[in-house]
Structure to design on (172 residues):
């Protein structure tokens, strides 16, 4: 009768070590995949922003909408607020109502619709600027902009949702 030693044989030890190494390699692989996906999401985040610029030399006033992020953003809701009342903007026609509420002559403005579904590329800057106004109309336009706010809801290409709100209120 052969005398068997109690304990772990070298073959069993090698098999257990192989299983442990395989499980660790799998865990590292899963962790690396999660980190890569997180990095990919962060590397394409949009960051929408609004600004108001006044150029005294040229008498122009501009309202700008810009994607300052490093990935594209898709607008899925855009609202203009006048004195706290929200006006959803889905096409150019809705801007006419906002301009009427602000008592702004539509012919003063050169503008572009920031409508639903618009994809804004990184670095893209959209503008709504006034045409050259006479001395009486410029203060009216500036006062009207003080009453205007924007709220935009947008998504990254991964479907993450963001909201940006702004007010153009300035002292005259």
């Amino acid at each position: 009768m052969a005398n068997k030693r109690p304990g772990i044989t070298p073959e069993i030890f090698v098999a257990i070590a192989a299983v442990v190494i395989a499980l660790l390699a799998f865990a590292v692989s899963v962790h690396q995949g999660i980190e890569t996906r997180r990095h990919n999401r962060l590397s394409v985040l949009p960051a929408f922003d609004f600004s108001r610029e006044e150029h005294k030399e040229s008498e122009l006033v501009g309202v700008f909408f810009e994607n300052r992020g490093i990935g594209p953003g898709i607008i899925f809701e855009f609202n203009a607020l006048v004195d706290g009342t929200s006006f959803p903007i889905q096409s150019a026609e809705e801007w006419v109502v906002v301009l009427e509420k602000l008592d702004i002559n539509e012919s003063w403005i050169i503008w572009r619709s920031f409508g639903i579904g618009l994809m804004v590329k990184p670095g893209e800057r959209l503008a709504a600027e006034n045409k050259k106004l006479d001395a009486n109309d410029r203060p009216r336009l500036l006062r009207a902009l003080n009453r205007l706010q924007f709220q935009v809801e947008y998504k990254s290409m991964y479907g993450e949702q963001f909201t940006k709100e702004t007010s153009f209120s300035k002292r005259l």
User: Anything to note?
Assistant: Residues 10-42 form the longest helix (33 residues).
